[in-house]
Specification:
single chain; mainly alpha; 8 helices; binds heme C
């Protein structure tokens, strides 16, 4: 066997041995995401912020409120889950950041009725990034990877 084909064989074997989890990890540690779900320090700060400021509505296990898709008699939606059963992960990081900082009205219009507070004054930008990093860190690797992909698409659209 030539040394070239030996190297090729070695490369194929190495890639073949990498588990999907490792590949997903390499993919999700893309430096361009505003969120840092693999940074243990940021994630643990974010968990504290979550427990203090979000868990009352979104649930201590990120499970959301009962019947979260159905508006109540006054037209308000219950708090949705932040686990993979919700649609938090369908929004690029920047949108999530803006919703937490400026409220849902930032996208839905000033007249939109929502119980979701805006955290512009209550939380710093770093705390908002931390809490969203914590939320993202709880998603399975494949959902995190899909979210990274979404961010990439969002970035290429704004260029
Ligand atoms: C007083 C209850 C309440 C608190 C506290 C709260 N939320 Fe919400 N949140 C809601 C409700 C209700 C919605 C649904 C928004 C709507 O009316 O359309 C929501 C929606 C969201 C969304 C949009 C989800 C999506 O899929 O579109 C994000 C992101 C979010 N909240 C993050 C947070 C974070 C992070 C915190 C803590 C810093 C927090 N929320 C605290 C009630 C709350």
């Amino acid at each position: 066997m030539s040394s070239k084909s030996a190297r090729l064989l070695l490369l194929t074997l190495t890639l073949g041995l990498m588990s999907p989890a490792v590949l997903a990890f390499l993919w999700s540690s893309s430096p361009k995401d505003l969120l840092k779900p693999t940074d243990a320090k940021i994630v643990s700060k974010g968990q504290q912020v979550y427990d203090m400021s979000c868990a009352a509505c979104h649930g201590s296990k990120l499970q959301g409120q009962f019947n979260w898709r159905t508006r109540d008699a006054q037209g308000y939606l219950p708090a949705p889950p932040h686990d993979p059963s919700g649609h938090t992960w369908h929004h690029p990081s920047e949108q999530l950041f803006n919703m937490v900082k400026f409220g849902i009205q930032h996208y839905a219009g000033a007249d939109y009725k929502s119980h979701m507070p805006k955290f512009e004054r209550a939380l710093t930008d770093e705390q908002i990034v931390a809490v969203l990093s914590y939320i993202k860190s709880t998603w399975p690797k494949d959902i995190q990877a899909k979210h990274d992909q979404l961010n990439q698409q969002a970035r290429s659209q704004t260029k």
